[in-house]
Specification:
Strand content: under 5%
Shape: elongated
Largest sheet: none
């Protein structure tokens, strides 16, 4: 692997990817739609995997396992949450367009993480991503983890990630900009009513943030709705659990949610209904 180009070994964007990122960023600034949104049925019932005979339960299990692998690997590599979120969006969209029969979900999860590290400018070496990710993916199979010490075996996985990254970029159509709920959550702390008790504010912000993280871990709402809508729904869900909705204003904070996030109650309820499934 030491003979690979430096931007691959070190996990930085090559010229082509940087160019596509600038184009995507400019399109977003100009108001153009960078990412398309998907219907829940498209993702979970009519995906390429389902069309090729993969049972829905198996696909859902692979999605959750891959997301957990990304979260665990990100924690070990000390990656910020936005990088992990970008990776999960890449992964979910990839398998909304590609089949599990053609791509291993664990290999693609690590490929998405390597690309996300570059896109979010939190680079990690390919060597570290593979070593940490593979060890976590096969933690219950020490014999497989031990194989990483074999140079030929490790080289095989390096090639898998590099080739997989090319497939990933084309599948995503080089749309690498990902809008995430976190900036909206940071804005939330400045928009809560001044007369709301401080302890309630702290609990609300923490719980809403947790719901945002869980939404990536166990649902596909990141493909279905804009980030502002997800942030609003997670805030509403947290406020409801804390019985703090009346503190946000009349009609359970109708004006608050519209002025802060620009979202309707209908959309927030749609997202919340999917978040509730996490806790059932």
């Amino acid at each position: 692997w030491m003979t690979l180009p430096p931007h691959i070994v070190l996990g930085t964007l090559g010229t082509g990817a940087r160019l596509h990122r600038r184009v995507a960023s400019r399109a977003r600034m100009d108001g153009a739609c960078v990412r398309a949104f998907w219907r829940k049925e498209e993702i979970e019932e009519h995906s390429p995997s389902r069309k090729e005979g993969v049972p829905g339960a198996v696909e859902a299990l692979c999605r959750r396992a891959a997301c957990q692998l990304v979260i665990d690997t990100g924690a070990r590599l000390k990656l910020p949450q936005p990088t992990v979120a970008t990776c999960i969006v890449f992964y979910q969209e990839f398998f909304a367009r590609q089949s599990l029969r053609e791509h291993d979900h664990r290999d693609m999860a690590l490929t998405c993480l390597f690309l996300a590290c570059k896109v979010e400018e939190t680079p990690r070496s390919l060597v570290d991503v593979i070593h940490v990710g593979y060890a976590l993916a096969y933690r219950k199979h020490p014999d497989k983890v031990q194989q990483l010490s074999d140079k030929a075996f490790f080289q095989k996985h390096v090639v898998k990630v590099i080739r997989g990254e090319g497939v990933l970029l084309h599948t995503l159509q080089f749309q690498l900009e990902v809008d995430k709920p976190y900036p909206y959550m940071e804005k939330l702390s400045k928009c809560l009513p001044q007369d709301m008790p401080e302890d309630v504010k702290i609990s609300l912000l923490q719980l809403a943030w947790d719901h945002v993280n869980n939404s990536y871990k166990t649902t596909t709402v990141c493909l279905q709705y804009p980030a502002a809508d997800i942030a609003a729904a997670c805030t509403q869900f947290a406020a409801a659990l804390l019985r703090a909705l009346p503190l946000l204003g009349p009609e359970d904070g109708k004006d608050f949610f519209w002025n802060t996030f620009g979202t309707s109650r209908k959309v927030r309820d749609e997202i919340t209904s999917q978040l509730l499934l996490v806790y059932e």
